[in-house]
Structures are given as C-alpha cells and as structure tokens.
C-alpha cells in the first residue's frame, strides 16, 4: 500500500472521470437528438429547390439519412470511438481533417485573444485596486463597464472601418494560410483577436481588481508591509500570486465563451475557423460536421473543468475527496 | 413545308461580345471576386446548387451550348447545330482540337458518355430528365453528335446550356466535386475550404484569345457589411452577386468603384398556398393582386433597381409578355373582390419570411402594410432557411411566404400540382405542353405567352419584381456581365484596365 492519501485521491479522480464520460454521453445524445428533429433536410439544401424527388431520395439514402435514429447514433459514436471520421456533406472531405485545418485558425485566434485579454486586464486590475475609489479606479471601472456592454462583432466592424477601410493598415478579413504566409496570417488574426480579447479583458480586469483588493486585506500582506518591504514587492510578489488564482480559473472556464465569440468574430472577419465552420454547417445542415464540432467544443469545456477540479484537489488538501 | 432551322454556325467572335470600349482588352492580372455562398462541392452535374454554377459555369466547365451575357444561346463545345423539320433530332457539329485541363481530348464519344451518364440509373445529376428525354445518341464521326428526342421539347437547347449538362472528362471525373477538370478558359488550382476557390488561365483554351486574366479567385464572404469592407479595403476586386441595393448606392458614390445594375432571372414572388383557405379562392388572390402597388414595392425594397412583373417570367428571357397592367394598384377594387369572396371585413393570415434573404423580409413588411390597408391582417414570422425548405417547401404547411425563384425558364413549376404553392390548373398544363411541343418559333411564342397569361389571370402568387443583378467592382475592372440571364459569374472576357 502506498501512502494513505493515495487511495482517496485515485477514487476522486475516477469518480470525476466517470462523471466526465457520462456527461459526454449525455451531450452526444442531446446533440444528436436535437439535430435529428431539427427541421431541414440536408439533401434538399444541397440539391436546391429545383431538384427532382428521385435525386433527393437517392442523396438521402447515400447520406444514410433514411435509417432509424439509434442506428445512426450508434454508427456515429462507434466511428468516433474507432477514430474513423465521417465525411462532411458540404465539403466532401473527412470531418477530422476539416476540423484540424480550422483549429489551426481558431486555436491561435483564441490564444491571441487570451493574450490580449491578460495583457490588458491584469495591469488595469492592479492599477485600479491600488487606486481604489479614486478617479483612476473609476476610469478603469468605466472602461470595463463599456467593455462588458459592447458586443464583439460591433467592435470588430468598428476596427475594420478604422484600420482597414480608412487607414488601410490591415486587410478587412480573410486568412492567407500559415504555410503560404506565416506573418500575414498572424497579422490577419490581430484585429479579430483584439476585438475578442478586449471584451474578455473587461471581465478579467474587474475580477483582478476585486481579487487583488481581497488579498490586500489579508494578514500576511499587513505583515509584509510591517516588515518594511517596498510596496512594489508587496503587490507584485506577495499579493499578485494569490490574487491571480481565481483570475486564472475564470480564464480557463472562459474557453467556452471564447469559442462562442469566435463564431461571431470569424464571420465578421471571414476567417476560415472552427466557429464559422459550425455556423455554416448548421445553416447547410452539414450534420456530421455540426455533431463532431459541437461535441468537440463540449468535450473541451468539460475537460478543462475536469483539469480544474484535479488541480484544486492537488493544490488544496482541504477539498473534499469523497 | 420544309423548316430547317439552322442556328448560329459561326465561331464565337470575341468582338461581338465585348463592351463598346474604345480600347482593346489588356491581358494579365489577377481578379478576386467575392461571392456570398461557398459551393457544396464543385461538380455542377451532381447538384442543382446555384453556388456551384456561380463559380464554375463557363469558367471551368463548358457544355455543348452556353448562355451568353445577353441571355442568348451561343456555341460552347459545339460549333453549331441543326434541328430536323420535326424538331426532334439535333445534329451538333463539335469543336475540334478541344482538350480537357488534364490533356484528354474532347470528342463525340466523350459527349455521348456524358449524356449517358446523366441518364443512367442512379445518376447523381439533379436533372436526369434532361438526358432521359434523349431516345438515341449517334456519333457518325468523331465530331458529329446526333441526338433524337423522344418528344419535341422547346427548352432542350436551354437545358443543354445548364450547369447540369457540362462536359466532364472520362478519366479523372470521379473527383470533380473537389478537383474539377473541365474544358473552360480557367483551370482549377486550389479550393481553400471556408475561404476561396483559386483558378488560373488555361493556356490551351480552344480560343487562344481568351481569357484575359491570369488568375481568378472566388472568395466566400457571407456578411454584407464584411463584403463592402473587403471591397473598400482592396481585399476583393468585385462583389459579384446579391448586393443589397442600399449598399450599392453607397458604393456608387465612391469614385474608386462602379456599380452595374442589370436584370436577373430571379422572380421575387409572394408565394401563396393555393390549397389553404382562403387563398384557394381565386377572388381572394386577385384582390391581393389589386392591393399590391408593385412600383412602390420595388422602390421601397429594391430602391427602384428591380423590374416589376405581372407574371412568372423575367423580362430578359425570350417570349416575355408585359402583364404588369393586368391587376393595377386599386385598393377599392381589392375590397370589392374580398367582399365578393365572402370576406367584407378581411381576414387574418400568416406570412413566413426566410431569414437568409433580406429582400424577402423587407418585401414582407411592405406587403403586410399594403394588404393591411384592404383588411388582410398579416402576422409576420421570420424563419430559418432549413425550416423554410422543410415546412414550407416540402410539407407545404404555410399560407403566404416570400422568395425569389432564381432559375430561368422555370414556369413549368406551375404545371406541377404538388409544387409547394399547389396550383392545379388543367388549362395551364395544356398550354405548357403545347409550348414545349411547339415546332416553330411562332408557336413557342404564342404558347409561352399563354402560360404567362394564365398564371397572371389566376393570380397564383403575388408577382412582385425581378431582382436586379447588382454587382460592384473597382473602376478598372472591365467587361463584367451587367445582366445575369443565367446563374453564372463568367469572367472569361473580363480584363483589367490598368
């Protein structure tokens, strides 16, 4: 037997993992059922309103849409578990390949947006906390209020009007591709990532501020100050570390929101990302794509939650392991 | 009497089609055309989707005949054709020395294979009836193709000019949806999913004078404001299709750009369920026709860029009859007809508008107001496209809707009582059959005109206007099609004046 703490820990992980699997099964069933009853026939959308009933029936059979619910569901899940990709109805290529190529846009976009968010939010939050209830604090709070109220698509359009149409510094959208033009690709992501990131920054700045204020009231900070440490050291070394824990947690949980935001912003900047893929796929009833992408997004959120749970358990022994 | 109809046996003379510009076209350059919808695959012989034809028609693929920028039939891969006196046998003389982009030669055997493929059991073609009407295919030599139809069909040549009838190579056709190989002036380079389709000049095109451009890209941007931003920022050179009229007006003010406003074949109609009460009553439908002020609808919805219509036939298509005066705007008359039909106080109904078409929503609001003035109270419902196709188009579960019917030569939908607006008229079916079987031009003109009249008289749907073909481009882009008489964005003769 190992140390006494190991068994409860393992049990905790297993329970959390079982919950994760159960959750994914439920998500997959829900996604499948919703798409199954959603009005709209993929065959009709592909062939258009002038197609003959014969060609419609043939395409439906070819897509396997005429089979019963559970056969189709089992087929989908079975193939996923075996790592076999379905074919996109619209693009006629494997969904996995399609998703991978779109992730190459949305992944860096989300990352860049997070970077923008953190780069703005944390200094602003600290600044506001240090000047609590003074004009500087009010200015930051006003900015975050505006940020919270601004839809990212609208900010995106404003950025395009200013930087693309008026100043001509950036393209109004589009994506040249990482292989063809790496620098141009990075540049293409700057405006949309800024639009996405600055909105997140508003929330994070507020969170950083309040978390910082909480920490600054703690005893150990008073001790640090009493020791005669410089204020900079107190803030950046002692306070910030602890203040950032809730901020980073929220940052992780914002992944889902960021993916949702990407759907909108990718349409404004016509970026070939995952968000626009799923948006078009819903309109086109490209069911294999919608299913896989929604499941992937759900899995990403569930998985991040799982990791957060584990991290808490590892870091804080006070968390109930039973 | 012998009636040998010989049509167009001349080579395509480029000069005949180019705009009356003083300067000769310049060669070279790369053009980026923005379109709203990304096509579901690039094979026009496996789908009726208009988004496919807008990219590939006459650019990548060609059929025996083509529709030109004026809506006329012109030689494609056939140099010319003759029609037998009984109008059943078509003899095509094929162009010699034509090669597909992969080097395969085009000849009568290839043409035969393509036609047989379209007719085959289990074909993926959206219009197998185009090919199944052919009784026999003869190939007396490599460059002669003789087709005998089971029955006379006045629209046969137009059907052979559709995207469904383009010629594919016998080898390498399987991947057409993702790697298309045709005979057209441009050849396929790359389809970047979600972004663009890139084509380049075909150096071995059968007409060595064409195309003028070196590179042609179709870029997919759905959002109208993103489209305009892309044009203004210089990311695209042409906004090809479905440009909202208010946007067109804004662009036209900018000296760097020009806007072309022509005509299309898309009739925007208030689709009416002829089997649903009270719309099964002809008097009610005629009352609605009198209650709609078409000129004002066109002004409010299309800023006057559209063309009002009185029947289901675009003015740029041959045999058009102007029926816009048939039911002049007359609210008093409308109320009288409603009273006659048993609705002196009007009635309430529901109109469902597809969300993807802004014109449909705007027209729906305007119509709701106009019908409200004669006592028909409309409740507006905005529906998503998949829902529209399912509930309205397929299950016919609706009262009124609004949609543009984009295809040319589509009045035949009124001969099908199961079509979503469920119009059932033996008189119309008879007239349509006579038009299709007409052996002379005069007969065709007479019966197609009759078809338009019957549909107008019965006020089957609310006939509103034909959508304008609005396109916007940089001022230096020359020779873009002004009208869209067929579903295509053909850039063969486009050139850069810079």
**Strand count, sense and closure of the main sheet of chain B?**
9 strands, mixed
| Interface with most residues | A-B, 50 and 47 residues
Rough outline of chain A: globular
Distance between the termini of chain A: 19 Å
Please give the number of β-strands of chain A: 0
Strand fraction of chain B equals: 15-25%
Strand content of chain A: under 5%
Count, helices of chain A: 13
The averaged pLDDT of chain B comes out at 90
The number of helical segments of chain B is 14
Order of helices and strands of chain A: HHHHHHHHHHHHH
Oligomerization category of the chains in this entry: heterodimer
Structure description:
The complex is a heterodimer of chains A (about 325) and B (about 500). By secondary structure, chain A is an all-alpha fold. Chain A is built from 13 helices and no strands. The model of chain A has no long low-confidence stretch (mean pLDDT about 85). Chain B has about 500 residues and is an alpha+beta fold. Chain B has helices spanning about 15, 50-55, 110-120, 130, 155-160, 225-230, 245-250, 280-290, 295-300, 330-340, 360-370, 385-395, 425-435, 440-455, and strands at about 5, 30-35, 65, 75, 80-85, 90-95, 135-140, 145-150, 185-190, 195-200, 215-220, 240, 255-270, 305-310, 345-355, 375-385, 400, 405, 460-475, 475-480, 495. In chain B, the strands form five sheets. In chain B, strands 2, 9, 10, 11, 12, 13, 14, 18 and 19 form a nine-stranded mixed sheet that branches. A five-stranded antiparallel sheet of chain B has the order 1-5-6-8-7. A three-stranded parallel sheet of chain B has the order 16-15-17. In chain B, α9 (about 295-300) runs antiparallel to α11 and α13 (about 425-435) runs antiparallel to α14 (about 440-455). Chain B is globular, with a radius of gyration of 23 Å. Chain B starts with a strand and ends with a strand.
């Amino acid at each position: 037997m190992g140390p006494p703490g190991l068994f409860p820990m393992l049990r905790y992980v297993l329970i959390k993992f079982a919950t994760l699997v159960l959750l994914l099964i439920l998500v997959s069933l829900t996604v499948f059922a919703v798409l199954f009853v959603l009005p709209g026939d993929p065959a009709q959308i592909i062939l258009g309103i002038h197609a003959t009933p014969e060609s419609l029936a043939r395409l439906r059979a070819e897509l396997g849409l005429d089979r019963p619910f559970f056969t189709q569901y089992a087929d989908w899940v079975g193939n996923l578990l075996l790592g076999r990709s379905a074919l996109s109805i619209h693009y006629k290529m494997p969904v996995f390949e399609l998703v991978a190529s779109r992730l190459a846009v949305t992944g860096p976009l989300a990352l860049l947006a997070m970077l923008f968010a953190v780069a703005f939010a944390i200094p602003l939050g600290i600044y506001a906390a240090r000047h609590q209830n003074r004009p500087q604090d009010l200015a930051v709070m006003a900015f975050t209020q505006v940020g919270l109220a601004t839809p990212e698509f609208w900010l995106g359009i404003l950025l395009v009007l200013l930087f693309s149409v008026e100043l001509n510094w950036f393209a109004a959208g589009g994506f040249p591709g990482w292989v063809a033009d790496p620098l141009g690709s990075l540049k293409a992501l700057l405006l949309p990532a800024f639009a996405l990131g600055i909105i997140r920054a508003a929330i994070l700045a507020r969170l950083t501020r309040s978390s910082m204020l909480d920490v600054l009231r703690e005893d150990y900070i008073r001790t640090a100050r009493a020791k005669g440490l410089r204020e900079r050291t107190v803030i950046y070394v002692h306070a910030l570390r602890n203040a950032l824990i809730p901020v980073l947690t929220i940052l992780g949980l914002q992944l889902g929101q960021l993916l949702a935001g990407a759907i909108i912003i990718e349409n404004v900047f016509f970026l070939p990302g995952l968000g626009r893929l799923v948006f078009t796929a819903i309109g086109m009833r490209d069911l294999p794509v919608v299913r896989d992408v929604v499941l992937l997004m759900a899995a990403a959120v569930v998985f991040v939650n799982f990791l957060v749970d584990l991290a808490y358990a590892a870091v804080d022994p006070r968390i109930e392991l039973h | 009497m012998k009636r040998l109809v010989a049509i167009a046996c001349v080579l395509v003379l480029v000069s005949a089609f180019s705009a009356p510009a003083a300067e000769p076209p310049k060669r070279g350059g790369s053009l980026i055309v923005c379109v709203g919808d990304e096509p579901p695959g690039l094979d026009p012989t496996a789908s009726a989707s208009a988004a496919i034809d807008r990219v590939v028609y006459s650019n990548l693929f060609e059929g025996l005949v083509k529709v030109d920028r004026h809506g006329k039939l012109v030689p494609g891969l056939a140099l010319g054709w003759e029609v037998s006196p009984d109008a059943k046998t078509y003899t095509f003389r094929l162009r010699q020395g034509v090669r597909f982009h992969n080097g395969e030669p085009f000849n009568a055997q290839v043409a035969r294979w393509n036609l047989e493929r379209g007719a085959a059991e289990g074909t993926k073609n959206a219009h197998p009836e185009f090919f199944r009407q052919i009784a026999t295919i003869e190939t007396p030599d490599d460059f002669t193709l003789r087709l005998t139809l089971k029955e006379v069909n006045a629209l046969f040549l137009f059907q052979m000019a559709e995207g469904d009838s383009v010629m594919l190579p016998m080898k390498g056709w399987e991947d057409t949806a993702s790697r298309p190989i045709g005979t057209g002036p441009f050849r396929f380079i790359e389809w970047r999913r979600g972004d663009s389709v890139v084509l380049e000049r075909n150096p071995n095109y059968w007409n060595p004078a064409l195309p003028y451009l070196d590179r042609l890209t179709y870029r997919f941007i759905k959002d109208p404001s993103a489209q305009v931003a892309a044009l203004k920022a210089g990311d695209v050179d042409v906004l090809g299709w479905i440009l909202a009229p208010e946007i067109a007006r804004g662009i036209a003010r900018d000296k760097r750009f020009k806007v072309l406003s022509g005509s299309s074949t898309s009739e925007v109609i208030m689709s009416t369920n002829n089997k649903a009460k009270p719309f099964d009553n002809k008097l009610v439908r005629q009352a609605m026709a009198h209650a709609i002020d078409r000129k004002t609808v066109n002004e409010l919805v299309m800023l006057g860029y559209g063309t009002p219509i009185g029947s289901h036939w675009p003015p740029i298509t041959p045999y058009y009859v102007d029926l816009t005066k048939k039911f002049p705007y007359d609210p008093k008359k409308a109320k009288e007809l409603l009273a006659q039909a048993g609705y002196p106080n009007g009635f309430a109904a529901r109109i469902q508008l597809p969300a993807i078409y802004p014109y449909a929503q705007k027209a729906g609001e305007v119509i709701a107001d106009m019908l409200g003035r004669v006592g028909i109270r409309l409740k507006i419902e905005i529906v998503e496209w998949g829902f529209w196709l399912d509930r309205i188009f397929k299950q016919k579960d609706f009262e009124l809707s609004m949609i543009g019917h984009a295809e040319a030569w589509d009045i035949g939908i009124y001969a099908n009582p199961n079509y979503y607006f469920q119009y059932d008229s033996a008189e119309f079916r008879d007239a349509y059959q006579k038009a299709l079987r007409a052996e002379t031009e005069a007969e065709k003109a007479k019966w197609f005109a009759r078809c338009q009249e019957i549909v107008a008289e019965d006020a089957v749907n609310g006939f509103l206007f034909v959508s304008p073909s609005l396109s916007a481009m940089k001022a230096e882009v020359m020779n873009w099609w002004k009208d869209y008489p067929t579903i295509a964005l053909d850039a063969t003769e486009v050139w850069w004046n810079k």
